[in-house]
């Protein structure tokens, strides 16, 4: 029988800030762009009571919550804490999936001792994580990713909950449809307009109706999750997974403007791939091969990211630390590794509403017409010089 454990760090960004500065406890916190044109990346429960939500323009959030304290956020610090928790978990389980910067999944199928002793074992793990990092975590254990994730949400704050695989439909029935992971605000409103508020109502709707209203893929997925069905496997985290691209020029060159345009184009395409596949990278590598075939690489660990401007700054810095202006360059490469699943929310620390909208629009065009359909002016015209 499939048994899946879900682990979530409670209010992660907020918890880290309050761990670092105890005076932040109990006051409304807004993490995100500090200017009036910024965007809210995360907010405390105290701020939510004023109506503040993630991805909201900061100027709107400050108007709703004038007493809120705005913090820029520190992705390097958050990434470090996430790795610390991963290190603790690795001592208790043979493998885990790092689903995002603050979420983990563990496949416990066949591990009857873990399931039978979940109360004591889960408590021990939570206490160990808190002792090592100061951060509270919550856990949900059930038959699959969807149900265990919902169970985790019901166990917060700092709790754990086991849902018997034979009782998943009953557990889900009384909950709001908001608890289904793929039900966003727009989908929620559509379902509410159909008179569906609780999952029990969703369980009774035919999949054909949901597919006709929400689209075939989303409609069927939501119907399955309402029934407690989710076949998504737990994919063990691997530091080796990466996205990369390399180019060999038709002619060796020392034209720094052309070389910068090349790495810009490569970075833009890889960053789009990250966002399109909902991945974040925490390690950037740049490679240069000169005309004499001498090859050099350099890498840098960063806070989890997928924003082009963030990654391009790192790529350029690594490139210029390797680049020798006196030698012709034959080949360059860029690689993003140490990937985890995640969304764009964490980049809102430094982004404006306009930049977020720009990325969304460019990504939509690239999804429709190809990964290099649109990009920066600097990267245009590079292709014809590549073998």
Automatic annotation (TrEMBL):
**EC assignment:** 2.7.7.7
Where does this protein reside within or beyond the cell? Cytoplasm
Task: Identify a single GO molecular function assigned to this protein.
Answer: DNA-directed DNA polymerase activity
Give the residues annotated as active site.
103
What biological function has been recorded for the protein in this entry? Poorly processive, error-prone DNA polymerase involved in untargeted mutagenesis. Copies undamaged DNA at stalled replication forks, which arise in vivo from mismatched or misaligned primer ends. These misaligned primers can be extended by PolIV. Exhibits no 3'-5' exonuclease (proofreading) activity. May be involved in translesional synthesis, in conjunction with the beta clamp from PolIII.
Identify the NCBIfam families for this entry: PRK02406.1
Q: What is this protein called?
A: DNA polymerase IV
Q: Native species of this protein?
A: Shiella aurantiaca
């Amino acid at each position: 029988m499939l048994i899946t454990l879900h682990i979530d760090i409670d209010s992660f960004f907020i918890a880290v800030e309050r761990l670092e500065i105890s005076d932040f406890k109990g006051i409304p916190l807004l993490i995100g762009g500090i200017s009036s044109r910024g965007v809210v990346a995360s907010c405390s429960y105290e701020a939510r009571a004023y109506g503040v939500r993630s991805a909201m323009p900061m100027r709107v959030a400050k108007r709703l919550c004038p007493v809120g304290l705005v913090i820029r956020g520190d992705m390097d610090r958050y990434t470090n804490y996430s790795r610390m928790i991963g290190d603790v978990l690795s001592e208790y389980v043979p493998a885990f999936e790092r689903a995002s910067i603050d979420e983990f999944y563990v496949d416990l199928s066949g591990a009857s001792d873990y399931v039978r002793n979940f109360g004591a074992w889960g408590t021990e793990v939570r206490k160990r994580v808190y002792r090592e990092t100061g951060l509270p975590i919550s856990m949900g254990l059930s038959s699959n990713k969807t149900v265990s994730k919902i169970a985790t949400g019901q166990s917060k704050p700092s709790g754990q909950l086991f849902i018997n695989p034979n009782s998943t439909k009953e557990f889900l029935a009384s909950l709001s449809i908001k608890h289904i992971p793929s039900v966003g605000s727009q989908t929620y409103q559509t379902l509410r307009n159909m008179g569906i508020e609780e999952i029990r109502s969703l369980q009774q709707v035919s999949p054909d109706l949901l597919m006709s209203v929400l689209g075939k893929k989303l409609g069927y997925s939501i119907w399955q999750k309402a029934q407690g069905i989710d076949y998504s496997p737990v994919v063990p985290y691997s530091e080796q997974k990466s996205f990369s691209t390399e180019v060999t020029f038709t002619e060796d060159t020392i034209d720094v403007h052309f070389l910068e345009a090349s790495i810009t184009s490569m970075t833009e395409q890889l960053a789009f791939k990250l966002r399109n596949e909902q991945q974040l990278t925490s390690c950037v590598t740049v490679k240069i091969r000169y005309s004499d075939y001498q090859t050099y690489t350099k890498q840098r660990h960063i806070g989890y990211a997928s924003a082009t401007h963030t990654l391009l700054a790192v790529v350029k810095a690594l490139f210029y630390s390797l680049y020798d202006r006196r030698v012709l360059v034959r080949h360059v490469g860029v690689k993003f590794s140490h990937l985890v699943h995640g969304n764009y929310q964490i980049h809102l620390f430094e982004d404006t509403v306009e930049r977020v909208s720009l990325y969304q629009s460019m990504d939509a065009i690239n999804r429709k017409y190809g990964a290099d359909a649109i990009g920066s002016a600097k990267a245009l015209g590079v292709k014809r010089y590549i073998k």
